[in-house]
Amino acid sequence: MPVDRVRVAILDDHQSIIDGYTYRINHSPGIELVATALYGEELHAMLRRHAVDVLLIDLSVQTSARDNTPYPVLRTIPQLLQEFPDLKVLVVSMHTGPGLMRTIMEAGVSGYITKDDHEALKNLGRIVLSAADGDIYFSQEADRLYREYEKLRIGDFLTPRQVEAISVCALYPDLSTAELAEILAVSNSTARNLLSGAYLRLGVHSRTAAIEKARELGLISPHASNSHE
Fold first, then answer.
1. Structural domains in the chain?
2. I want to staple 32 with a disulfide (CB 3.0 to 4.6 A). Which of 5, 118, 208, 212 is the partner?
């Protein structure tokens, strides 16, 4: 990481939940809480005002103190990732459903934690650090629902576009997601979705593990070369 501490921001419309996340983060070495917000309308301003590496966000927040209509979180996430290409987004929510999992993946998030996943919430600091390094985390139930929707099994073949994304990462191990998106001529959120979808299909949680598994399955070249063709 280019900074000594991973900078975290939180959007959740319950102060008690923010306080709980704050407690976990403040007791996690290497992480700094830099901003919190209760309402969706505060989100963009918060991210522009503070340098943020990982955003913890709930799906169900109201727009403002005056407007209790739901803020369009899922529609907003791809916009955020385009404006802040290095931002990692972890959704923490009580909502589940196979279709929802697909929509969340397509938004380009780095993980989905269900609010009843007490083990994950206990280890929130570790998950945040992992996300900052480019890994993904899905609570067991969220992961199961996504696989159910996609009818995937570990070891299933990747889509051609996912193979291309993993191949480029194998060629250039230090490539950022924004640089990958530029090579693939896609948006930042689409690049994240390609990688995250590949991780889930391969049953791994990191870029390095995905490259190794894809090589084992013969999906990409066993050895990286020096140029992208």
1. 6-150 (3.40.50.2300), 160-216 (1.10.10.10)
2. 5
